[in-house]
Amino acid sequence: MKLYDMNMAPNPRRVRIFLAEKNIDIPMMEIDLIEGENLNEDFLKINPRGTLPTLELDDGSCLDESVAICRYFEELHPEPCLMGADALSKARIEACQRHMEFDGLIPLLESFRNSFPAFSERAVPGLPAEYKAIAELAERGQRRYRLFMKTFNDRLASRDYVAGKDFSIADITAFCAIDFAKMMKIELPEEYTHARRWFEQVSARPGTGV
Ligand SMILES: N[C@@H](CCC(=O)N[C@@H](CS)C(=O)NCC(=O)O)C(=O)O
What we know:
The protein is an alpha+beta fold.
């Protein structure tokens, strides 16, 4: 088993953190997305969509999509539980995870992909790699992400973690978005004290340092 990964990319990081939280150690191989190594013939033989993270299984088949890979490891190693223990908590965590992804991470990455010079001709991840960047999408993505930060702060006013009292995959997705935004020089505003308290708490976990 091997995880194809890229250190600075937020989606592969979601899986790395998930594995670290569960203390699972598997071989990882760095693929350089900026250089387009994910679009080389060799990588496309492993994952024809050309996206990371990609988990190559021992039978040579591959599994992609961050949450699907996490689900696989959650089933194999249920403790510590990161995706919910009973029907309702599984559903709640899944809903929260999706809110973090669709309202936070995706708008942020849309802004990044449509403004980062190396991706000016590859504004959509993976194949087909033929989409030019659109400046309005960069601006709209950033506006949507700023709204997300506000609703995220409001959410954290009444709970310790994104989905309630326990740390979960929803926190991992939010953390990867907010930490990547910092790299894009978009900080959580000073007045968002609940979100900032949460960020400090989650940053201090050994698992998020990967
Ligand atoms: N929904 C997918 C998104 C995967 C994705 O877009 N990954 C980016 C890296 S963060 C990628 O593979 N980019 C390929 C490229 O830049 O061509 C997941 O969660 O795995």
